[in-house]
Amino acid sequence: MSTRPPSMRDVASRAGVSLSTVSRVMRGAPGVAPQVRERVRNAADELSYVVSRNASGLVTGRTGRVSVVVPYLKPWFFGSVLAGISEVLREADLDMLVYQVGDLRPQPGWTRTLPLRRNCDAVITVSMDLSEEECHRLDDVGVPLVLTGQRVPGRASVFIDDQAGAAGATRHLLNLGHTRIAYIGSRGDSWYSGSSMNRLRGYQAAMGKAGLTPWSLIKPPGHEGGEHAMGELLSDLDPPTAVLAEFDDIAMGAHRALRRSGIGVPEAISLMGFDNHEGAAILDLTTVDQSPADIGAAAGRLAVEITEGTRPRDTHLEMPTQIIPRQSTSAPRSVRGLS
Amino acid sequence: MSTRPPSMRDVASRAGVSLSTVSRVMRGAPGVAPQVRERVRNAADELSYVVSRNASGLVTGRTGRVSVVVPYLKPWFFGSVLAGISEVLREADLDMLVYQVGDLRPQPGWTRTLPLRRNCDAVITVSMDLSEEECHRLDDVGVPLVLTGQRVPGRASVFIDDQAGAAGATRHLLNLGHTRIAYIGSRGDSWYSGSSMNRLRGYQAAMGKAGLTPWSLIKPPGHEGGEHAMGELLSDLDPPTAVLAEFDDIAMGAHRALRRSGIGVPEAISLMGFDNHEGAAILDLTTVDQSPADIGAAAGRLAVEITEGTRPRDTHLEMPTQIIPRQSTSAPRSVRGLS
Prior knowledge:
Chain A is of the alpha/beta class. Chain A has 13 helices and 12 strands. Chains A, B: Residues 6-60 form the HTH lacI-type domain.
């Protein structure tokens, strides 16, 4: 016994508890009395026991891992989604593999470069905006696929209603009395993402319903896009009194352009974003919250439940959005002048 | 052959190239001619070949995985470090497991709750500020350990010189002509992190050398800490003309307090952060860049090299920092008045 590493069974027997209690304590799951938790930890300590992933894999025939596929890891959004997924997977005693697709994405066969086969029990994609063909490629891996940030008929999807969110944001500005409302959207080198398309549609629909002509500028994604678009809007013959940005990064770039030009927000121009980036709070930016950590947690749970067979593979979960009013939006000057 | 999944060997033989060429193409590594790449992709396509992690594991006796342990996943810093690690690991054909320790950390046995044993070939910790005892616990896992964000004698560490960085930042403000320079630092519930301690020391040392009395406020980490501290400084009998924050999040909270109070930055108060958060660019905040993606890439390479035995286990890599001057710092009014 001196050279064999201690097993979970050894810990259970030393602490005088069941195997499943040891498992719960070891993965930090709730529902174990503090004294029992303490006893298990002490027993594990005395035996220098460390959790091994192999043991459970041999029993269940599963790998005990879920793969998460993201386009990039740097933007705040993905960290928040991963945080939500990570907490759910830990609770379910599963590990999280993370793949950043990055510059591989434009290559047609990128799905094959991910070592997913026989390496995980489920795959979660985050805001990858997969084509039908890419979904089929990932089906080849042979494990359940959960898509977040897009809604695909017949497939497990966790998403928000981007169109309704953008329409609501537009109505917020209309209700404040604005009529000259510009929209700054984004698109990649040659394509719109589904979410970009839907937010633009939501803005256009709300403007149309109000009998107003939509006024949209489409730029590459990121701060710079917002900054350039705002530069254009500020050089218009009759600039807008309010600007809605497709996401907060764009709004933050627009905010910088306004600050540098000494133009008051919201005194001269109201500015609104979408996503509730942590920087939006810093800038007092009115925005639409979509809670990426909750999206991650929902996707994680869905992956676990589909793997366990307790949830159908075509489950759709629509997550709520809500408008967060802050100090970057107010009534336009002319309306204020009348009141 | 109809039911056996196609192997990398099948792809190599169909494309008429070596196994290692297929491997390079599949993991997106450079150094393969475009036509060859195309041929390999077509062969893989025709065979519906998908990379499997198992095959290589059986050959090398390794798991093909590196575990990354982070305190939290939400803050921007960790996403950037993970992006750097991820790119290096992909290049080395290794998978990345990510563990968020979060609220488990205060529990004394948290290292045991991570299923690291026989589950990965190396462990990278990111800004965990591990104690000697925690390092020993992770040694029990039996694979190389690479620490980032802290410098531990005798152990593989990737770090910046926080003390020198903060001293340089302080000198930047001194050189602009400021003498009333306050410092906003952070500490957790009951402890300072090593990095917090070193940045505070750097500030104190630079002030001392200039014959000035250090003036530091220590708050809980985050925007709120910066906001509260700035509130205190603004209610001082003789407020500072410049403020250095331990990191950009704190500076951004301080920036919001100043904006809400209508106090000009840098006209009335110069403000400087540390880290080069993406929000710092948005706010035109002068800061100290520490390039977390480079730190991640260096840690990833070190983990790979130590695992392969080509780098000693006690390698220390000090990463550079640099001051990024932006519009939030300038000479104080009195100095400007004289010039």
